Automatic annotation (TrEMBL):
Protein family (similarity comment): Belongs to the HMG-CoA reductase family.
UniProt keyword annotation of Oxidoreductase present: yes
Keyword terms, alphabetized: Oxidoreductase
Coiled-coil ranges from the UniProt annotation: none
The organism's taxonomic lineage, starting at the top: Bacteria, Pseudomonadati, Bacteroidota, Bacteroidia, Marinilabiliales
GO biological process: coenzyme A metabolic process
Pfam families attached to this UniProt entry: HMG-CoA_red
Signal peptide, first to last residue: none
Entry's Gene Ontology molecular function annotations: hydroxymethylglutaryl-CoA reductase (NADPH) activity
Organism, scientific name: Geofilum rubicundum JCM 15548
InterPro entries cross-referenced by the UniProt entry: HMG_CoA_Rdtase, HMG_CoA_Rdtase_cat_sf, HMG_CoA_Rdtase_NAD(P)-bd_sf, HMG_CoA_Rdtase_sub-bd_dom_sf
Name of this protein: Hydroxymethylglutaryl-CoA reductase
């Protein structure tokens, strides 16, 4: 296919005609795209991105009964994987009856960098670090004033020479961004510091630096929350699937320890955590790519990728399970208020602060992780997963409402698979 020039300048109808003419697509493309456009609010969605043709639907559901730091929440979740909301809901009501989720916010700091190349001696810059910090902070006060009113702002500016790249410096600016995720604020401040940085070098009669780039870092190990649950081991009977409790908790802890030590398992284990976290992050209009990137970097902070959660069993038979994860989230700014469903999610969550949202997302992550590991060490996940997946299979095979009801009944005690469902429908005809 030749390069398409000026595609973004075409009208939506022209874009669709172009695609229909140049790609092997069914001729219902235009109708399907039209069907998913919003009758009243499409202009808003069109403006979120470039070349928007329609909307891509995902289920917006809720997991009720989350008791987090003594407060009740119904947690909105946007996710396509059928078992995630069910698993979160079940774990939430189980833990609500066993003390609930307890969280600690360790810090909410974020950093950004101006990367520069400079030929002078590193010591000279390090000596000027404090003066430079004051100069740059004053230079962007017009950008930080309203954040300062919300108790955010610039916290520190450091010059860090790069050990492995002679002549390359990281000017690290630490920010507190109150209830916003703060990406735009941080990037505006950093870009606003570029000219004043050059001025500072000129005032000090230093050779001019070559500014390479200015950008926030999504590595947020200082924007960290721990969420934990604990109970006497015997309380875990509803999750033990008939196993003796000692055997269940031993298997559970061993599974978590395997994820701490083995990277193959750790990645899948952490994916189960992000099933819950991402669903909340998406529902609240936050940036799930940033959250995932930060979490995976944190999981590898000692040089090996490991589990983000850990489990302890005390000698007196007490079970504890906890998750520590960086979560740079906002409850104001970005899409959090602009997307009508994100705004509704905030309402359902009773207008949380950014710190509260960190606790809620971490609790959803721990709830899903708990459910997944408990299933893996007992029945396996496929039984429950495929039961929930049954309606997807029935829809994909074009089953009628009557066939669906009959299949739901038949598969109550049968193993679900694509083949088994197809055969059931063929026989039922
Ligand atoms: C599936 O989406 C998530 C799990 O694979 C997580 C895990 O293995 O712990 C079940």
């Amino acid at each position: 296919m030749p390069i398409i020039k000026g595609f973004s300048k075409l009208s939506r109808a022209e874009k669709i005609s172009h695609l229909t003419a140049s790609l092997p697509v069914d001729n219902d493309l235009a109708a399907t795209l039209a069907e998913f456009r919003h009758p009243a609010r499409q202009a808003l969605f069109d403006d979120f991105s470039e070349n928007t043709l329609t909307n891509y639907y995902m289920p917006f559901g809720v997991a009720p009964n989350f008791l987090i730091d003594e407060k009740w929440y119904v947690v909105p979740m946007v996710i396509e994987e059928s078992s995630v909301v069910a698993a979160a809901s079940r774990a939430a009501s189980f833990w609500a009856q066993n003390g609930g989720f307890k969280t600690t916010i360790h810090n909410t700091l974020k950093v950004g960098h101006i990367w520069l190349e400079w030929a002078g001696p590193p010591d000279q810059l390090l000596l000027l670090q404090d003066q430079l910090g004051k100069h740059l902070t004053a230079a962007v006060r017009h950008l930080t004033a309203s954040m300062e009113q919300r108790e955010g702002g610039i916290r520190q500016i450091e010059v860090i020479p790069q050990k492995e790249m002679t002549g390359i410096y990281q000017l690290q600016v630490t920010f507190s961004t109150a209830d916003s995720m703060g990406a735009n604020f941080i990037n505006s401040c950093l870009e606003g510091m570029k000219e004043p940085l050059l001025d500072f070098f000129a005032q000090k009669k230093l050779s001019p630096p070559n500014i390479i780039m200015a950008i926030l870092s999504n590595h947020t190990p200082d924007c960290l929350v721990t969420c934990s649950v604990d109970c006497p081991a015997e309380q875990l009977a509803p999750y033990a699937a008939g196993l003796p409790i000692e055997s269940f908790v031993h298997r559970f802890k061993t599974a978590v320890d395997i994820a701490i030590h083995n990277t193959h398992r750790a990645v899948t284990h952490n994916k189960g955590i992000y099933n819950g976290i991402d669903a909340v992050v998406l529902a609240t209009g936050n940036d799930f790519r940033a959250v995932e990137a930060a979490g995976h970097a944190y999981a590898a902070r000692d040089g090996q990728y490991r589990s983000l959660s850990s489990c302890t069993l005390s000698d007196n038979g007490h079970f504890s399970f906890s998750l520590t994860v960086p979560l740079a989230l906002g409850t104001v700014g970005g899409l959090t208020r602009l997307h009508p469903m994100a705004a509704k999610a905030m309402e359902i969550l009773q207008q949380p602060s950014a710190e509260e949202l960190m606790s809620i997302a971490a609790a959803a992550g721990l709830a899903n992780n708990f459910s997944a590991v408990a299933s893996l060490v007992t029945t396996g996940i496929q039984k429950g997963h495929m039961k929930l997946h049954l309606s997807n299979i029935l829809n994909s095979l074009g089953a009628t409402e009557q066939q669906k009801a009959a299949a739901q009944d038949y598969f109550k005690d049968q193993t679900v698979s694509q083949k088994a469902v197809r055969e059931f429908l063929e026989k039922a005809q």
